[in-house]
Amino acid sequence: MQHEYQQLNMEERVKIQYGLWQKKSLRTIAKELGRSPATLSRELRRNKGFDALKRRHYHPLKAQELAKGRIIGRGRRLRLKSPFVRQYAHAKLREGWSPEQIAGRLSLDYPIYRVSHEAIYQYIYSQYHREGYGTCIGIDLRAWLRRRHKVRHRKKVPYAVEKGHICNRISIDQRPAEVESRKIAGHWEGDSMVSRKSQIRLNTLVERTSGLALISKLSDGKSESTKRVVVRRLKRIPRSLRRSITWDNGFENARHEEMAKALGTICYFAHPYHSWERGTNENTNGLIRWYLPKGTDFAKIPNRVVKFIEHQLNTRPRKRLNWKTPSEVFNSIVLR
């Protein structure tokens, strides 16, 4: 009669570890447990982990976890087989990367690892059903997927701001066609993000060719504050990369002529309620909202957090940049 195989339990795994510490042979440990030497040999081969020095060793808790994950996933395909790829995906999901960005950048940085973004999506959802597949129990990776609304509503500002007519605006209709093509760097788009709970705003500037984002806190919605911050940020950029800025029609941009003179550039204005004419900037604002959802009080967000978000966006690979990052592309332009 064939003996029905039973999985090793936690108590047995502890005894295996203790026996190994005592320098006992596998045959001796197997005899003490009433198991075959082949069972213990298979256990060590399949369920060894790594210590802090990256050395292979046997630990009962890790072995139990690996075995449990294998049982849960039995009969199901593991979407990301490489532990390195899984760890890479976990880290980048936490940084707000999409599966498509992860797959694209992975193949760029580590050509030997190639996975599709669909495989990453399937891993995320199958990981939830199989309880993390052993190594991620208790973590639902779906929470790290970006969720964005495609419809944007007109901004409602509960605080008093400057109102009036913006003099001497230059329409986007007069903007050179080269700006739309993105082939020539140095053309920027600008906007202000509003907080419903305070007067503090975020000024965002995005370079169209590279997608490089500059994010700054504004003390209020006044045009003087916007002018001061924009000049300070763009003054650090080479003049050859300050060709133009395209704004919306918010009165915070009323000092556009002073900005243009200080920066040696020209300011254009999109048509009212045509946010798609500044699509690069609108998309970036949507990415910022992943970190700072609507309803966030910007007054409670320290500058170091704003700088962190700026860094995250500028070091995130983009499909249209062939999976390079905005910082990489912009720096390569500066060094030409």
UniProtKB/TrEMBL annotation:
List this protein's GO terms for biological process. Answer: DNA integration; DNA recombination; transposition
Query: Any keyword tRNA-binding?
Result: no
Q: Which GO terms describe its molecular function?
A: nucleic acid binding; transposase activity
Q: Where is the Integrase catalytic domain?
A: 172-334
- Family annotation (Pfam families): HTH_38
Extract one GO cellular component term from the record. cytosol
Keyword terms of this UniProt record = DNA recombination
* Domain of life the protein comes from: Bacteria
NCBIfam families attached here?
transpos_IS30
This chain belongs to the protein called: Integrase catalytic domain-containing protein
**Which species is listed as the source?**
Candidatus Yanofskybacteria bacterium RIFCSPLOWO2_02_FULL_43_10b
